[in-house]
Amino acid sequence: MIERTVFMLLAICGCFSFQPFAFADVYQGYIGRYPVVMHFAFRDPETIQGRYFYTRIKQDILLIGHETKGTETSKNDDITLTSKETGDKFWLKRHGDGYQGIFENKAGEPLSVTLTQVQPSTVKNPLPLLDFAKSSDYEKLRFADVALIPGKKETVNGKYFIQWYSDPYTELTMFRVISGYPADVLTTLNRELEIRHYIAIHDVLQCVGNDGLSGAKGWTVSSYFFNEKWVSYGLSLHYKCLFDGAPRGDTLYTNTLGVTLDPKTGEQVPIERIFWVTPEIKQPNSAMQRDDYLKQIYAPTLVEIFQRLYPQHMKVTNDCDYANPEFWIFGNWYLTNKGLYVGAKPVARYSHCKYAPWSIIPFDVLKQYYHDID
Questions:
Q1: What is the pLDDT of residue 7?
Q2: What pLDDT score does 24 carry?
Q3: Which of 29, 206, 225 is nearest to 115 (CA)?
Q4: Angle (CA) 204 207 213, round 5°
Q5: Cα–Cα distance list, 222 to 225, 289, 308, 366 (Å)
Q6: What dihedral do alpha carbons 73, 91, 16, 236 form, nearest 10°?
Q7: Per-residue model confidence (pLDDT) at position 22
Q8: How far, CA to CA in Å, does 2 sit from each of 21, 204, 211?
Q9: 259 near 268, Cβ under 8 Å?
Q10: How many C-beta atoms lie closer than 10 Å to residue 258's C-beta?
């Protein structure tokens, strides 16, 4: 997998993983005339777990199965694999350095299968921009012919000129900044935006829904903000991702993720860089110090500000107690033209309270806590 800090859905729901997916064997071949890539491995002596994708679609399809050991008269081991979501079935026999066999779809239509093992670390890195050093060949093959398509251009705040790029496989669209910053800053910033775009594509292609198609049904840049110090945007997400053992429900989860970058470095900045309540105290330099700040100072201060700005919303309705600091400790945030948006993030029991579109700290208020916001 692409070795990089998770920024999108994993940061919200934990439904994706960039940890190495423990499948040692990768295969290329055909189902009928359709090119596919597959990987699977033994989870235990009796269970095989895997995935595959059609190269023209690239969306993962989950597989579960088992192996039947060969006999004295038939040395070949048989492998049976099934997708619970699509109804696909495979009956495979070892053949040379790969497998041959039969595929059958949900309708019972059979096709021949030929798979050849990909020798480890022989696949060229298709995207030098990304660190595929520890990635599986499965992912390298998935991205072998992915190319982003340039789209519309627009001007933001009369100064920043941006262009949108889309991925034809997932339809995920993200902007790049064409002008408005010095050339070296543009290079750094756009490199980070492109990396994040590709990782988002990777996430969606790994997200399997109940129907075997993508479980990520929407990914929209809902807000974007530019100034000399920050590039900030919000992402609206709708998803339901299945993994081994995951519940097979129809519920789509909705959430918002905020990303704020320092354009000079491309680094994502923490909330302390934007909203620091105690200037007489040094900013935290450890995870424990940061948690203490968020719980003991940051969240209670947010409540005080929102009670002053939005008293009508701070009353308890439908079990949503926005005056509870715990609602705000780890909420997503991003800058908008109106100010700093901070999303609520209550515990699961109150998940219906997390969408609070009103919770914006105007810039004139924000400057009281960060005097260099312009």
A1: 37
A2: 64
A3: 29
A4: 95
A5: 11, 32, 27, 22
A6: 180
A7: 45
A8: 10, 14, 26
A9: yes
A10: 23
| SS3 assignment, position 291 | helix
Helix, coil or strand: residue 86 = coil
Q: For 81, which DSSP code?
A: E
Q: Is the pLDDT of residue 192 over 70?
A: yes
Q: Are strands 231-239 and 160-166 parallel, antiparallel or unpaired?
A: unpaired
DSSP 171-216: --EEEEEEESS-HHHHHHHHHHHHHHHHHHHHHHHH-B-TTSSBSE
Q: 88 or 250: which carries more pLDDT confidence?
A: 88
Tokens of 227: 């100034």
- Which contacts qualify for 97-101: CB closer than 8 Å, 24 or more apart? 98/27, 98/29, 99/27, 99/29
pLDDT tens-digit series, residues 14-69:
333 333 444 469 999 999 999 999 999 888 777 899 999 999 999 999 999 998 87
Percent of the chain with pLDDT over 70: 85
What's the mean pLDDT in 351-364? 89
Which two tokens mark 162?
């941006």
CA–CA dist 64, 41 (Å, integer): 10
- Of 237, 244, 249, nearest to 210 by C-alpha is 249
